[in-house]
Amino acid sequence: MENTPPVVPSPGALGARGRILVVDDDPTVAEVVVGYLHRAGYAVEQADDGPAALGRFAARRPDLVVLDLMLPGMDGFEVCRRMREHGPVPVIMLTARGDEEDRVLGLETGADDYVTKPFSPRELVLRVDSVLRRARAVVPVDAAGPLSGGGLSLDPVARRAHRDGRGLALTLREFDLLAFLLQHPGKVFGREELMREVWGWDFGDLSTVTVHIRRLRGKVEQDPARPRLIRTVWGVGYRLDLDTESPETGAGAGPGGTREGGRSL
Question: Rounded to an integer, what distance in angstroms lies between the CA atom of residue 158 and that of residue 144?
Answer without folding.
Answer: 10
